[in-house]
Amino acid sequence: MKKIRNFCIIAHIDHGKSTLADRLLEHTGAVTEREAQDQLLDDMDLERERGITIKSHAIQMEYELDGEQYVLNLIDTPGHVDFSYEVSRSIAACEGALLIVDAAQGIQAQTISNLYLALENDLEIIPVLNKIDLPSAEPEVVKDQIIDLIGCEDEDIIPASAKTGLGIHDILRAIVERVPAPQGDPKGPLQAMIFDSVYNPFRGIEAYFKVVNGSINKGDEVQFMATGKKYFADEIGALKLQQQPKKTLSTGEVGYIISGIKDAREVKVGDTITRTEQPAQEAIQGFEDVKPMVFAGIYPVDTEDYEELRNSMEKLQLNDASLTFEPESSAALGFGFRCGFLGMLHMEIIQERLEREFGMTVITTVPNVSYYAYTKAGEEQTINNPSDLPEPSTLDYVKEPYIRAQIITKSDFVGSVMSLCIEKRGELKNQVYLTTDRVELTFEMPLGEIVFDFYDKLKTISRGYASFDYFPLEFRQSNLAKLDILLNGDQVDALSALIHRDNAYNLGKKICLKLKELIPRQQFDIAIQSAIGAKIISRETVKALRKDVTAKCYGGDITRKRKLLEKQKKGKKRMRQVGNVEVPQSAFLAVLKLD
Fold first, then answer.
1. Which CATH superfamily is domain 4-178 in?
2. End-to-end Cα distance, the chain
3. 490-522, pLDDT tens digit by residue?
4. Which of 269, 499, 525, 534 is most buried when burial is the number of CB atoms within 10 A of its CB?
5. CATH class given for the domain over 191-275
6. Between the CA of residue 128 and those of 29, 51, 235, what are the distances in Å?
7. What is the per-residue pLDDT across 200-247, written as a single tens digit (0 to 9) for each?
8. Binning pLDDT at 50, 70 and 90, where does residue 589 land?
9. What homologous superfamily does CATH list for 298-314+326-364?
């Protein structure tokens, strides 16, 4: 146990976590030259294409210092705020963390929030100043920022460059000397905490765990405490680049278990594994349940694929524990799922992964957040979908979730960032100058306003320099209205949205105009209307494709033409009663991209 070190790498997006992990693996000989490649641990195509880490990845390396062999378990974590749940789970499996700060960009929002996560779990923090070889690096300025933030000494900060490999040995030495060895009772009953899992189509579910107390042997009968199910440990082992089977794993070690579990619902991330014959009395305190921020409906394009979509979602949930979903049905789209995501990027990634990894093509509805509705009788209802909102006659008021947003930006962009936040109904609470040209702005604003395109707009107006992070606050009463979209008088529930009454007119008009462009013309007029309750606030008409029935009449009496036109009119009337309007998939997506 004294020779084991468990640590993770935390940082803001793009500060060089994955590159540093590559160098650490090369220096400790965990990968051969033939296997080496950039972003070695990011094994998903999506991660490589976008250059971001989506999943945290665990890997084991061996390192010799002063004649002693040490085992280092490294977890590389994502930096984006939408994947912060991955970070919190990784941190729970570690005793130390490398806090990486880019010498050119300095401390950013995610650096701070990941640091707080690590401090809450009493991790030993090793600050690393990365990218000091860049011409735009300002190591002295950023060092002062780190000292202000953590309260460490100047010599505790390790200057490094993950690209050139500078300072890697200092980092490895610091990990061995500063990170404490895992604590636990090797003789006690087995307690192992699951911090991640993946679905393998050939071998069932593989769960990754950290042994907190006791030890586990191959062939033991083990019990998962949350579900109470029992299995045999068919294979256990260490997480090297390829899995390395072992006979036994003892206290403090990180490894995987394969026990032929086929049903995705039987493994819960944060659960405790124990032995059947000598069980532990209570489970380890895992991490708290995830709070989804954004809700959207995901529907199969073909209703027959509903069960297949459910299986795909369950397998995906194994690998991404922050995804939550429950069945729902919609008049326009049939059966599907109401899914909870941590943010818009998370939603996009889930949709891509469903398409790539499981071959499912899906329709996503307009994203929204959870509300509480209070009726005049004093009942409280949770509203995840705008169509669940009670009738306006019985509704008393609605509460919506608020967040505290922390935005760190250059001082040149303060004005434009402020006006963006105020436009989104934000209230400025605090403004702190971190350095002469970096400002931290704190806003309180409704979560519903940042769901759509807030992040993209923020990046645009600050030329990519603003970093954004948020924490949920309480629910507050708001003047919200339900905006319905009607096609020929029929409501399209997938396009309904709950929005602030002041914005309803503008948005209703914009959606109608957009749909007019996207809905194909039929043989009859299509009325596109937006309404609040029974009140229509805007209307557009898609004109009918007209067939010229009088073309064959040359000359002759007007009554002949009139007779043909009357006949056509009756036909159109009948067609309008039976004809239904198909809303193309592009229309659902275009509404998301409205300004």
1. P-loop containing nucleotide triphosphate hydrolases (3.40.50.300)
2. 57
3. 777 777 778 888 888 888 888 888 888 888 887
4. 269
5. mainly beta
6. 22, 21, 37
7. 888 888 888 888 888 888 888 888 887 788 888 888 888 887 888 888
8. low
9. Elongation Factor G (Translational Gtpase), domain 3 (3.30.70.870)
